[in-house]
Amino acid sequence: MGWYFRRSLNLGPLRLNLSRRGVGWSVGGRGLRVGETAGKRRYTQASIPGTGVGYRSARGCLLAIPVAIVAAILVPVLLSAGLVSAVMAVAAALARAV
User: pLDDT below 50 — which residues of the chain?
Assistant: First the structure.
């Protein structure tokens, strides 16, 4: 196992990820994010907040950014209503679209 360095700065829905390789970014909120790594690889990430369960697709698409912003608002509302299956349906739909 090797050592690593990673630090992130949150600026609202935008997160800057600082690493040894450079600066990456992502946009979204708890449950759904899209972004680009320091190595310029795009990704989409969906998860169930607080559980540690999620999915990350390396086929991210910048067209998914507006969807991620809407989902950042929608996911906490669905979770507070106890609709975990609806959150997973939103994540699956985004993964298929990208």
Answer: none
